[in-house]
Amino acid sequence: VRLDIRREDRLDTVVRARSGDVDAFEELVRRHAPSAYRLAAAIVGESRAQDVVQDAFLRAWRAIRGLRDVELFEPWLHRIVANSGRSALRADRRVREIALDASAVDPATPDDGFGGAEARAMVEAAFRRLSPDHRVVIGLHYGAGLSIGEVAEVLGVPVGTAKSRLAAALAALRADVGAT
Amino acid sequence: VIGRQGPRDRVDDFLERLGTAEPAAGLVDEVMIRVRSDERTRRSRRWWFVAAAAILTLVLGAGVVWIGTRTAEPNPTATLEPSPGSTPAPSLFLRTFDGISCPQAGLPRGPVTFRIDPAAAGPDQVVAVDANGEPHDVIWAVEFRGGTLADPVVRDPAGEIVARDGEPFLVTPDDDRLHGYLVCSGSNNLYVLLEGREDPDATPSPSAPPATDLGILPGTWITMADAPIQGRTDHTAVWTGTEMIVWGGVGGPATNDDQRTSDGSDGAAYAPATDTWRVLPEAPISRLHSHSAVWTGREMLIWGGLTLDNARVGGGAAYDPTSNTWRGLPAPPFAPTGTQAAVWARDQWIVVDGVPAGNGATQLNAAAYRPDSNGWDPFPALVLSSADAFSLAWTGQEVIVLTDSIAVPSAGYSLSLGDPERSWRPIAAPPSLRITAQGAETWTGTEVLVASSLASGEDRVVAYDPSKDGWRGAASPPFGLGGGSSTWTGTLAIFGLGTGGMDRRTVYDPTRDAWFGIPDAEGIHRESATQVWADDRLLLWGGFEGESILRPPGGRAFVPTALYGLAAQASDVAINGVRVEAVDASGTLTGVRTPTAAEMDAIDTSQLGADGINALAVPFGPRAIFVYWSGGPGDLAARIEIGADGRSIDLVAVPTHGDAIPLGHGVILTFGREIPAREIDLSFWDGTR
After folding, report:
1. Which of A23, A158, B292, B683 is deepest in the core (most CB within 10 A)?
2. What is the pLDDT of residue B341?
3. Buried-exposed string B140-175: b where 16+ CB fall within 10 A, e elsewhere
4. Across all residues in chain B, what is the average pLDDT?
5. Strand order across the beta sheet in which B666-670 lies
6. What Cα–Cα distance (Å) separates residue B103 from each residue in A74, B157, B189?
7. What is the rounded radius of gyration, in angstroms, for the C-alpha atoms of chain A?
8. What is the average pLDDT across A121-143?
């Protein structure tokens, strides 16, 4: 098991940020930006992830004074990132998303030996066709690297529900890729 | 040799790569620039809201007393002495005015003690008990906040109005050192119940800014009855004039124990008049999300979007609430992609859909659906070198189409319904936009309001005037608009449709280029709810509960306190109701609310002229009274004056019309809470009686 020997420091930083300490919040941003970015990239794609993460941290800063339990900062933050990503999906469901369709892949992209860029784009396109909820649960588990229990905590659902949602999301993705 | 991957391998490879994405090096710095900027803005704004809310409360509370007493003659016999029987709580002191009644008659008299009930809030917090410990009615209590307290004016038991030293009740709203209630008790006494310090010599806080820079649109949040269908996001809502129809969208669990992801019900209709819902019959098409919907005046049209399996559909459907039936719509001349925008334009539905056209270009397909012929007429396609987003607006004459792109400047086009060529006419180039509307922008009657988010993270609004083919920038909003377009009330644009929660709505008044806040929604936070303007209230429904993925079936309505008022020069204001302008306590015009015919019809003017009565005050809705002058004896008119303090309201009888409100005209006075009818007591002084 991994021991979290810096737990007290971690919580102290959250407490200071909650009381309005901007420098403490910056520490939190540095600490959590990578996982937040990976989660956002999974939901909206890398081209939009930077914007989503910025938006999410800004919202977290505005709301952190209302965070009751500092132990729950991480799932709380991931929830904000997930919702920001979901909001970005809704806001951008106009033109930008279409470019992610497999038909838009440049056929001149060289094969990388692992099925090629075309195959990779096909999976990405299938992923973009998943519902936002499915993208979020996959992003939390595979993008942000959260355990199923942590995913359940972020989503505010029982562990069993998180498991079944993840399984359903993967099944939908695999079915789409297999059918493509 | 590495063979080609199967589906499972490809998915696993993809999932593995999800966990390796790395942010750009400057991400943290960019985040912190925005956070620090936001913090500076937040600190500077905090005072505006506090001061504005305090002063609004003060003015409304003081206005009640002022109106009831301003024209009275001083009564030198009135005594104002503290009641010996009062037992104020710590940090609370009580002034009672023995022998002087509040403007109620016929109620039993008796000694009472007042205290603050910490379990209650607002004026209801005031509790009165008599000498036996029995609760005693508090007829009304007006809350105020301010710095110093001048002597109140009250009314004696004989019904004569008295005013100590001829001065009105006045709380100086320079800070919040003093907090209290003006209380009318069941013992027919008037009291002033105070908390805090009363220190006239204390220096007000120097950091308090003037309160007129950001006003608050006063009003009340009301909880709507829960819908009989599952809560959802990505649905649509339209207002028919009597009902809000919500349809489609992605359902989700309402609670953590709710395992449903989506139910089969397509939609429901909510009637605010009865606070009731009814379920719609099933539509003849698959349930959609992220679609478009409009109200034609007779039917709700829906089209576009995606099914719950994210499949595209061709045709749409129309729902007629009168017959409670659906009919199918023919497919438009191009395949929808789920990235459409649509507006109702006079007698036809204009839909625009964007698709990639290769080499980074984007093609906009457009068509018009006419319900009378049940057919589609296509417009020529417009190919743009680049477009990341687009939105529409109907101006009454033409459809304005706006585009934005990170690669090329923003652009605008006009589609004129009268153009036989049906061509896309370029309009004046808009400023750099990042469109946030989900489909349609707001048309005010003279301008298209476009919300745009800036790269800095701030939002702004720009306005296009088609008569001048020109753009202007609106005043900067006080805080982020939350994405989305605005909801138009007829005079004001309420922003907060997108990601903004219920507690982050902002109101823009284009005629004065001014912004207002909306009172907090009492802790309710809902993201991505739909909002519609339902004649006199904003209806919000659906969306996520706070930061969770829960989608509760409940909604809320914000009912603005009707801001009635009268501009002195407005000669066209008559009792049959035309345009009525609203002024705040500083005399600044704050909005317009035209009384409905029903409200005007409810005014009983039969007393006027009888027995020499030349003025009338009647309830006008729950939070306002209508004051009317008739042509009684003498040449009577009245003038509204804003007190020298800028916060009290004075109705002054004047012998000649001049710039006053002429005979036969009236004024509607609005208060920040409901006023029991029995509380209303308005008297006038015409110079002789």
Report:
1. B292
2. 86
3. bbbbbbbbbbebbbbbbeeeebbbbeeebbbbbbbb
4. 64
5. B615-619, B624-629, B666-670
6. 58, 9, 9
7. 18
8. 84
- In 3D space, the residue among B631, B635, B633 whose CA is nearest the CA of residue B666 turns out to be B631
* Length of chain B as a residue count: 689
B388 contact A CB<8A: yes
Q: Give the integer Cα–Cα distance in Å for B232 and B262.
A: 8
User: Among B286, B321, B254, B255, which Cα is nearest to B542's?
Assistant: B254
Q: Is the distance from CB of A44 to CB of B21 less than 8 angstroms?
A: no
DSSP code string of B459-505? EEEEEEETTTTEEEEPPPPSS---SS--EE-SS-EEE--SS--TT--
Contacts of A42 in chain B (CB under 8 A): 18, 21
Q: Which residue of A has its CA nearest to B361?
A: A99
pLDDT at res. B490: 80
Q: What is the Cα–Cα distance from A64 to B101, expressed in whole angstroms? A: 50
Put simply, whether the predicted model's pTM sits higher than 0.80 gets the answer no
SS3 of B399-450: the string is EEEEEECCCCCCEEEEEECCCCCCCEEECCCCCCCCECCCCECEECCCCEEE
pLDDT at B607 over 70: no
| pLDDT value, residue B328 | 93
Residue of A73, A93, A141, A154 to mutate, interface with B, max B Cβ within 10 Å: A93
Q: Tell me if B535 sits within 8 A of B542, measured CB to CB.
A: no
Q: Across the interface, do A29 and B548 touch by the CB < 8 Å criterion? A: no
Q: What is the mean pLDDT of chain A?
A: 73
Phi, psi of B574 (to 5 degrees): -135, 170
Any A CB within 8 A of B341 CB: yes
Rounded Cα distance between B494 and B557, Å, is 13
Q: Shortest CA distance to B242 belongs to which of B200, B298, B173?
A: B298
Return the sign of the alpha-carbon dihedral for residues B203, B208, B212, B217.
Answer: negative
Among the partner-chain residues A37, A53, A114, the one whose CB lies closest to the CB of B5 is A114
The per-residue pLDDT for range B237-295, each reduced to its tens digit, is 999 999 999 999 887 777 655 655 555 668 999 999 889 999 999 999 988 887 889 99
ipTM, two decimals: 0.81
Task: Report pLDDT for B92.
Answer: 28
According to the 3-state scheme, what is the secondary structure of B226-243? CCCCCCEECCEEEECCCC
Q: Is the pLDDT of residue A83 over 90?
A: no
The partner residues of B628 in beta bridges, in order of sequence, read: B616, B666
Where helices occur in chain A by DSSP H, the ranges are 7-18, 22-44, 46-63, 73-91, 116-128, 132-138, 148-155, 159-179
Q: Rounded to 5 degrees, what are φ and ψ at B24?
A: -65, 155
Q: Which of B21-35, B241-255, B370-384, B577-591 has the highest mean pLDDT?
A: B370-384
CA distance from start to end of chain B: 108
pLDDT score for B128: 59
As a whole number of angstroms, the distance between CA B41 and CA B595 comes to 38
In DSSP notation, B531-588 reads EEE-SSSEEEE-SEETTSS---S-EEEEEEPP-----TT-TT--TT----EEE-TTS-
**B244 CB contacts (<8 Å, ≥6 apart)?**
B237, B238, B269, B270, B272, B532, B534, B539, B541
Residue B315, pLDDT > 90, answer: no
Closest CA to B662 of B575, B532, B557, B548: B575
Alpha helices in B264-360 (DSSP H): none
Token pair recorded at residue A33: 């930006």
Three-state secondary structure string covering A102-131? HHHCCCCCCCCCCCHHHHHHHHHHHHHCCC
Residue B80 is encoded by which pair of tokens?
Answer: 């104002």
Residues B672 and B624 sit within 8 Å (Cβ to Cβ): no
**Cβ contact, residue pair A26, B32, below 8 Å:** yes
Residue B21, Ramachandran bin (φ over 0: left; ψ between -120 and 50: alpha; else beta): beta
Chain-chain contact of B259 with A161 (C-beta, under 8 angstroms): yes
